[in-house]
Amino acid sequence: xxxxxxxxxxxxxxxxxxxxxxxxxxxxxxxxxxxxxxxxxxxxxxxxxxxxxxxxxxxxxxxxxxxxxxxxxxxxxxxxxxxxxxxxxxxxxxxxxxxxxxxxxxxxxxxxxxxxxxxxxxxxxxxxxxxxxxxxxxxxxxxxxxxxxxxxxxxxxxxxxxxxxxxxxxxxxxxxxxxxxxxxxxxxxxxxxxxxxxxxxxxxxxxxxxxxxxxxxxxxxxxxxxxxxxxxxxxxxxxxxxxxxxxxxxxxxxxxxxxxxxxxxxxxx
Length: 269
Hints:
- The protein is of the alpha/beta class.
- It is built from eight helices and nine strands.
- Helices cover 37% and strands 21% of the residues.
- The strands form two sheets. It has a seven-stranded mixed sheet. It has a two-stranded antiparallel sheet with strand order 7-8.
- Helix 1 packs parallel to helix 2.
- The protein is globular, with a radius of gyration of 18 Å.
């Protein structure tokens, strides 16, 4: 439920008035763990990094700060309206698709994408292109969501007050249906470690993260549901009144909930 590189399957509208706020909320939830993973894989002074689906720019800007003036960061997205690299000379922003756009080969020390590959129908092709962009010995770090299949029932267990668990489970199932209708995959994250191994990467590892969120403290889940609201109702899994009740619940400081699990995987070329 984040940045993407293809308009044909990306379910969120970059022109929506609160889209930047939604993207910033994803950063507030997950940037800390993403930065740790990237630092552990070698994002450091003088490095060369590729950030795919740069969105609101949090990870790309952090990468540029880490590599410094001797390094280089390329940030790509189909829609770069929220990126401003004018004051960061080592950060280059490209508006392009990773499926058929031009990328350097065997060049980057670290290549990263978060909540991107799940939106691309040609997922394996996209991953192959990103692997080709990694220099020998470098790292690919891919993070994608997991809220489909059996996962909505698990996410719902963490909801408080408990009387909202059924609605929350059906909300996630409705979003899964919206994803599937356009060719996106709501639970691509769990498949990543196996795919990276099959594609020849070594030292493959991974972790799963989903912080418990106090109601009203972040806007990722609420803004996502708000933007998709008409399509959630059209799915037939939730009513307009239930979506409204869900939005009121996640805005209540007395409540808490889980966002989708973020499955992070990495491997060395």
